[in-house]
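Re: [help] complex structure
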Amino acid sequence: MSEMKFDVIVVGGGPGGYVAAIRASQLGLRTALVEKAQLGGVCLNWGCIPTKALLRSADVLRLIGRAGSFGIEVGPARPDLQAIVKRSRDVAGQLHRGVSGLMKKHRVQVFNGHARLDGPQRLRVTGEQGDLSLAAPHIILATGARARVLPGMEPDGKHFWTYRQALVPDSVPKRLVIVGGGAIGIEFASFYHALGAQVSVVEMADRILPIEDQEVSAYVAQALTRDGIRLYTGCVLQGSQVEQGVVQLRLEGSSNQTLQADVVLVAAGIVGNVEDLGLEGTGVKVQHSHVLVDEYCRTGEPGVYAIGDLAGAPWLAHKASHEALICVEKIAGHSPQPLDPRSVPACTYSHPQVASVGYTEAQARSAGKTLKVGKFPFGANGKAIAMGATEGFVKVVFDAHSGELLGAHMVGEEVTEMIQGYTMARGLETTEAELIESILPHPTMSEAMHEAVLAAYGRALHG
Amino acid sequence: MAKLLHMPEVSANATHAAIQNWSLKEGDAINAGDCIAEIETEKALVELAAEEDAVLGKILVEPGREVEVGAPIGVLFARGETDVDIAALLAKAGALSAANEPVVDEAPVRQARAEVTPLIDAPTPGRVFASPLARRLAAAKGLDLTHLKGSGPNGRIVKRDVEAVPVAAAASTPAPTPVSTSEFDEIPHSSMRKTIARRLVESKATVPHFYLELECRMESLLALREQVNQSAARKISINDFIVKAVAVALKQVPAMNVTWTDSALRRYHQVDVCVAVSTDSGLITPVVRHADSKALSQISAEVAQLAERARDARLRPEEYQGGSFTISNLGMFGVEQFSAIINPPQAAILAVGATQQKPVVENGELKVGSVLRCTLSVDHRAVDGALAAQWLAVFKGLLENPLGMLI
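Output below.
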């Protein structure tokens, strides 16, 4: 068997892996990428993108539902689940083809198959073409993660789902219980609720979206509850059994109810895809299903790197892509800066949307910082009123001494598109002074971002 | 073709210097040899002279701002040249620096040609790339961002760079801001003042001083001086005689013509005597070289000229560097006696008081005599008491029998 030699081999074609391959190629490295399923990974095929397509359909349905408030008379809107799912799959398919094109354009040689480390600087790829041996001094593992499976709730496509099944439903379950109140759980709660399911969310922590700022969690919880979604926070599952086609879920904690569900969607965290990579006997260390890496994504094994979900939280596509750049640029001898986890924005595309970057108020306080906190509601923003999008608020947290923007937290319509302003502000290390002096366009919802900064310094104009 | 003008190394080992003032303004024509600017070093003002005909195209460093030696301070245009890309010129200089090539278009310093070593182009000073947060944190720490290396994109100074500077280091470079209140005015230190302070502290703290005092009878010297001055073109002062006497004594007792270094005692072949001159901005010690072999008239003229140049802050580095012995004379202010701090690395300094009429005992009789009191401060590491006393006796003999120093 002949061996093919490269400068860099990337294992996994998700937003970490394919970006690593493109960057490596840009830097003049001979690059190969091994993918066992579809280019684009979970993000593009089974995550970020197809869920956004589904949620867009839910938004349209919701908007039509209140068309009357805009002076538009329409008949009752009826969602066509098959068409909604088809659109979502088409969107994913289009982007999947886009990534294939990018690989060709950047001369990245793509191998379909499963890769395992096979001695130092070598990989064995098992796939349709048979066994191949690839060699490179730098091997980047970007195999991603998958949904955690809870014992007794193994996905069967019928009563128990993970996000995979939730993306391609045959029908809308009448009663859906979602286990896990993080970003994935809350997004599906919004979607299935819009499509008419009776949705309950069970969360172990004392609040949904537990990594977000407390005020944000509280606001979203109130909005979801008002819409009719039931939230069971501070609860763990005691057990489940299927009786006559109905899942009985016993809760324990702040509620000891038994919930009935036609379908249970398990969205209780993810585990890294560390299995069958040939890590045994190498210096690569695995902890809690994730590969341990240093600030340049180097593992304990020389020449082996891990990026993205495989390398641990936060499990976000843009974190994976950024780690890809750091990892490859370091390999190429550049001097990239290590990732600052406080500068990684996070978005939840629920209704209402949530977006944040940096410290929550509580995190900043427990870090011993003296704060200036400002909040501004969209209800006081002209454009939001005109748009009928007055839900939510903007909250900013500054270090009172240095003026550093420690964190920003937003709830409301399209806030996921606006958080980048604060992300850049943090990245550029602007202080409150530059933000206060910035001119934001009127009328826009982004004016609330300016007002929140003003509010932190006691000088909001419209609040 | 346009050329960069660089901050010359006007005195040995100086890493920084400031433009005191530009003698010309932007657009002025320059003839070779013209003074373009005056540069303040730790010790003196030095003229920066044009090497060739040119036009002062652009001033890059305003007066008073200290920059690194080798940093671009201005741009010289060729006569008639107008369309000059200064940014490109500076960028090119930066690139040269990276390649570590010596710069060829450097302007020489007229007076101190021998002192100027080939300059290496320094990275372009001027714009500092720093984040707003880094600027604010640096200001709070009293940190000068121009001394920081940035780790952000393209060397931008960011928060972590400022935070990495220890507080002590930050405190050592406070920005000097003159303050005036109803109670006091604060006058920022000149670099000369800072040097004086540093060197004197160093001397008092590290050089073990001992002091020898002596009275000299001055009748013979005063008589000789009167005689000499009747025919001399310029008046010879008592101090001129003292310079000559010190020099001759050093020649006769070469073991005193030394400086201490950590590894060895340095004994000089040549007798160079420094004379302390007080100026508005501080003390400076110009050197009379080969003072032992120079005529009194020559010494007199030289000291007068050096003192005048010192007061105008126009001494060239070679005029104040070196020398193994200093004379500090406060006699003209009526001071009878004082002791001086050694001017390192020298081994001794002679503090000279006023010549005064005093009661003296001569052969058991009380008489009125002209008396000069001297105090010799000596570095005990280099010279022991007996040797210093021996030298002082020779010096006293020369002053009291001044013909001896003229032969």
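Residues 81-105 of chain A form the longest helix (25 residues).
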